[in-house]
């Protein structure tokens, strides 16, 4: 047993050293696959968990109550609520006034809440920039400040009173901009607006002649009870006309902000995973092709399927586990800088990925190792030693019309068609690669031409952050997809160069020039990309149709055509250089037996 383990270890080290370039490419490909999977899971964490994280960080209340009356009557109505059975804690009441805020030539609705400098028991807004409230200053809710383009140190005015921006903060007691619940006093009609906090001593000056109303934050023994803690609503007529929010309602409103972006990231993460796996499949296929003669030699010296499996599995396990660790780290820590769900909530993945993410990334890497091992093992059991040593490629199916057509093809095109006929699976991987790439780019073009309706906020309008997050999600997916497609193209070209060295040498020995041979290898990569691009455009349009909220504008056909030609041109350039370089290798050197 010790001797077999030593043999496996020696073959592992020898193969990793001898095939350094292929090992590095495989390491990069599996790392990319695991990083992509981890990135998709981390992005899902970012868009599904921010409200819970914000709620925990800000000691959010379970119930927020605002009377439908104003002044001392509102305070009197809230007094018994704070001591009702089932209420375990409260903060406030805090004065509210509904005004107009002016900043950077924009005048918008704003809910002004008076707060104390000392931290509250419930609803402690987390300051994300600058400081908390102080006399003469104002703190803006994060998403509202982001939409206005206002930062700490700027000056804004509320109803003509200038205030210096002390900072920005986030809260889970109210939905984020623009759904903060702005309304006229004693009105139940909500309008879009923003939220700001000022020092309690400034609220009376800002209110002017407008009567103050108040908000009370409650902590309940049963967070799910909501208003039922006070008994059936119909038995509490004093609550009619009040503005009442539960934690569940706030969470539901906030979830709508990221719903479409989450769908885009979900679909995109699956596309990216398919793209990454296509790259891994390409390099694994190339390595398996190079190891066919090795399988035959192992069988010739008496190795059985178990020994052959152990030799291959050890190699792929080492590469897979190393790739899983690197990919998991890169994907997990890359997610927060790449996508911010909303400036009005705290979005963080944490320092350590959850166990399910670790298991998913590790399972992917090990699955690749097992899949890569399974093919040579099955082939070893089903193929004779002589046939394995011959290392014959997949014979193309000969049809008369194909032979008749091939006679009339130019030499370079004939070589390209012949290479794809020998390795049809690689051609399919190229099609998948270009299909996903073209689909994401088509989705980006579609997203850029849409007319997004801004949010009306009184005298001015501001961008709808929901639409901006959808565009951000699509752009993120497109950038990662283009990087993966670039890597896959390089990997595919390299494996094709390694596999086609001898067929190209034979073609040159029969009279083909180095230019024709190199061009033929480039054409072999370009031909299967054409149907991928053609199918990717409608797929990308379909994705945008699924994610759209209403009327949809289509990108000009000239844009789509330019994108398709650009993708094909990029593939041609990336494949032509190494293909021509490989074709210039001396024929005699190429036709010599390769070491195994």
Automatic annotation (TrEMBL):
The chain crosses the membrane at residues 24-43, 264-285, 306-335, 355-378, 429-450, 470-491, 526-547, 559-583. The keyword Membrane applies. Pfam families: FtsX (PF02687). It is a multi-pass membrane protein. InterPro entries: ABC3_permease_C, Macrolide_Exporter_MacB. One of its GO terms (cellular component) is plasma membrane. It comes from the Bacteria. Residues 268-382, 476-585 form the ABC3 transporter permease C-terminal domain. GO terms for molecular function: transmembrane transporter activity. It is found in: Cell membrane. Keywords: Cell membrane, Membrane, Transmembrane, Transmembrane helix. Belongs to the ABC-4 integral membrane protein family. This is Putative ABC transport system permease protein. The lineage of its organism: Bacteria, Bacillati, Actinomycetota, Actinomycetes, Micromonosporales.
């Amino acid at each position: 047993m010790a001797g077999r383990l030593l043999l496996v270890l020696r073959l592992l080290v020898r193969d990793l050293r001898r095939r350094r370039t292929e090992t590095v490419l495989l390491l990069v490909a599996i790392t990319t696959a695991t990083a992509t999977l981890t990135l998709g899971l981390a992005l899902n964490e970012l868009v599904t968990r921010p409200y819970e994280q914000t709620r925990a960080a800000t000691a959010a209340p379970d119930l927020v109550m605002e009377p439908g009356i104003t002044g001392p009557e509102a305070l009197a109505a809230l007094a018994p609520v704070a001591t009702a059975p089932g209420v375990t804690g409260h903060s406030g009441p805090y004065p509210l006034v509904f005004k107009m805020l002016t900043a950077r030539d924009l005048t918008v609705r704003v809910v002004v809440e008076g707060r104390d400098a000392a931290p509250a028991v419930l609803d402690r807004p987390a300051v994300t920039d600058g400081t908390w409230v102080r006399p003469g200053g104002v703190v803006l809710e994060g998403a509202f400040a982001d939409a206005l383009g206002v930062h700490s140190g700027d000056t804004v005015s509320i109803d003509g009173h200038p205030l210096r921006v002390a900072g920005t903060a986030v809260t889970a007691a109210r939905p984020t901009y623009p759904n903060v619940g702005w309304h006229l006093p004693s009105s139940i009609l909500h309008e879009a607006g923003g939220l700001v906090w000022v020092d309690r001593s400034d609220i009376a000056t800002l209110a002017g002649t407008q009567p103050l109303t108040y908000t009370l934050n409650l902590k309940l023994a049963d967070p799910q009870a909501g208003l039922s803690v006070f008994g059936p609503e119909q038995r509490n007529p004093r609550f009619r006309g009040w503005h009442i929010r539960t934690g569940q309602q706030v969470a539901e409103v906030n979830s709508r902000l990221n719903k479409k972006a989450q769908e885009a990231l979900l679909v995109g993460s699956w596309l990216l995973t398919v793209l990454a796996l296509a790259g891994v499949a390409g390099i694994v296929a190339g390595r398996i092709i190079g190891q066919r003669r090795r399988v035959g030699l192992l069988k010739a010296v008496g190795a059985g399927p178990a020994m052959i499996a152990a030799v291959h599995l050890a190699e792929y396990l080492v590469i897979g586990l190393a790739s899983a660790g690197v990919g998991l780290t890169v994907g997990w820590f890359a997610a927060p800088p790449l996508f911010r769900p909303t400036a009005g909530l705290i979005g963080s993945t944490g320092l350590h990925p959850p166990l399910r993410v670790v298991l998913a990334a590790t399972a992917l890497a090990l699955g690749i190792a097992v899949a890569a091992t399974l093919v040579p093992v099955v082939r070893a059991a089903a193929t004779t030693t002589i046939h394995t040593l011959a290392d014959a490629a997949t014979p193309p199916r000969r049809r008369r019309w194909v032979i008749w057509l091939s006679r009339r093809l130019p030499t370079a095109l004939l070589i390209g068609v012949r290479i794809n006929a020998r390795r049809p699976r690689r051609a399919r991987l190229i099609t998948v690669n270009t299909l996903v790439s073209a689909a994401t780019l088509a989705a980006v073009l579609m997203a850029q031409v849409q007319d997004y309706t801004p949010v009306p906020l009184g005298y001015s309008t501001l961008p709808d952050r929901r639409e901006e997050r959808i565009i951000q999600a699509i752009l993120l997916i497109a950038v990662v997809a283009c990087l993966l497609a670039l890597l896959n193209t390089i990997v595919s070209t390299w494996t094709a160069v390694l596999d086609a060295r001898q067929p190209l040498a034979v073609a040159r020995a029969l009279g083909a020039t180095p230019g024709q041979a190199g061009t033929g290898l480039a054409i072999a990569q370009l031909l299967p990309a054409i149907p991928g691009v053609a199918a990717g455009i409608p797929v990308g349009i379909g994705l945008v149709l699924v994610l759209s909220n209403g009327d949809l504008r289509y990108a000009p056909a000239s844009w789509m055509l330019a994108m398709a030609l650009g993708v094909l041109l990029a593939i041609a350039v990336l494949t032509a250089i190494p293909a021509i370089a490989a074709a210039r290798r001396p024929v005699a050197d190429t036709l010599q037996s390769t070491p195994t």
